[in-house]
Amino acid sequence: xxxxxxxxxxxxxxxxxxxxxxxxxxxxxxxxxxxxxxxxxxxxxxxxxxxxxxxxxxxxxxxxxxxxxxxxxxxxxxxxxxxxxxxxxxxxxxxxxxxxxxxxxxxxxxxxxxxxxxxxxxxxxxxxxxxxxxxxxxxxxxxxxxxxxxxxxxxxxxxxxxxxxxxxxxxxxxxxxxxxxxxxxxxxxxxxxxxxxxxxxxxxxxxxxxxxxxxxxxxxxxxxxxxxxxxxxxxxxxxxxxxxxxxxxxxxxxxxxxxxxxxxxxxxxxxxxxxxxxxxxxxxxxxxxxxxxxxxxxxxxxxxxxxxxxxxxxxxxxxxxxxxxxxxxxxxxxxxxxxxxxxxxxxxxxxxxxxxxxxxxxxxxxxxxxxxxxxxxxxxxxxxxxxxxxxxxxxxxxxxxxxxxxxxxxxxxxxxxxxxxxxxxxxxxxxxxxxxxxxxxxxxxxxxxxxxxxxxxxxxxxxxxxxxxxxxxxxxxxxxxxxxxxxxx
Length: 489
Ligand SMILES: Nc1ncnc2c1ncn2[C@@H]1O[C@H](COP(=O)(O)OP(=O)(O)OP(=O)(O)O)[C@@H](O)[C@H]1O
Ligand SMILES: [Mg+2]
What we know:
The protein is α/β, with parallel strands linked by helices. Helices cover 44% and strands 12% of the residues. The chain has 19 helices and 14 strands. A five-stranded parallel beta sheet has the order 2-1-3-4-5, sandwiched between helices. Strands 7-8-11-6-12 form a five-stranded parallel beta sheet. A two-stranded antiparallel ribbon has the order 9-10. Strand 1, helix 1 (33-45) and strand 2 form a beta-alpha-beta unit. Helix 14 (343-357) crosses helix 16 (381-395). It is globular and about 80 Å long. It starts with 24 loop residues before the first strand and ends in a 15-residue tail after the last helix.
């Protein structure tokens, strides 16, 4: 706990002289005059009161004298450097959000800073908007902290509700904002994103940040049940509803009453069940299988999908009315390849997670290993990254994890090359060449995908159904490789 916090429980907007303002007071520590000037101009314009320090020592002196709402600290300073300053600032006030400024080349430093409790980091050269956004987040956190304290809430618990979703890219920040805005209502939420992007994590965060947090969060795996079973699982059944229904049974909708129900892979719900879901959504009521009685429920519905539901509605495979009901609030999770900047943070998060699970001390990646991770396309998104880190942690014997522990599969493979074509003097059938080429491309892709058709379709950017048609057309029978096996004989 900070030695000063009792006197300054609410820092934002407090009436301190002379560095006060509506937005709050910021301490800037940077040895470069030009940087100080830029930050001062920018932050003053944004309504912050700014104090400048040209050395770490000077900055700490200010921090001991005045309360601040955030500090912006350059990592590279002569004398007391940014890291040391961070450590000292944390001793002075462990709740002060400290934002580190680093050169892009020293992302490693930034990670280290985050480990040591920095609130965030900004890389040089930065955009003004970025600085403003980070500071806004910091003051928002301050505001929440103060508010929570006033409400005597358990701060720790409050933050842990988000702590497991890692990300600082603008796209993920938008996701966080949306969660915060949407969580309190009962509105239906549709989460869309590729496999492994964190859809379930987000669904849980929405529930955890909603007034329903104390009630059940029920997951329905819509995909793997035949329609009857899915319906009886959802709505329960009365005795004798079908052969084998000896006793009446309640369903997941009963269980989720006053809580949230999460439909994973909603695109897999068969059309006939979709109508019943629509009713739950619109009327908040349902009937048991074989039953006559209408049962009312109060549930919050969250759904996730990794397929394009809009397209499914166009093709008549998903009810349009249900689609629009679901689509009230839409959370779009970006694939990992579109937010590379999150990779260091995620890697660090998983190193910590699997490090402690495996009883290892603090682990870190070598810059070369991190480079490899940054270069990868991550078709399996965060889940794939998580698996790679877990494997590396288990296999490593040293605290530093090098590129040798990053499996070849995630290294960016050599670019695709078209074969050189030589047309024989007598000419050649265009159609035959094309279909031969198609066939070979599909065979190679299937091999690369270990025989998994869904994955092969992803690799070729085509729909699984299209791939399936082509397999039939070319009479290709994919051999599925068991994981761990070497290539087929
Ligand atoms: N932003 C994130 N921060 C930390 N961990 C994450 C993040 N996103 C995903 N993960 C982790 O990656 C794994 C996959 O996440 P999740 O199950 O939520 O993905 P999904 O989108 O539901 O995938 P699928 O479509 O395959 O079901 C989980 O172990 C989850 O904890
Ligand atoms: Mg999922």
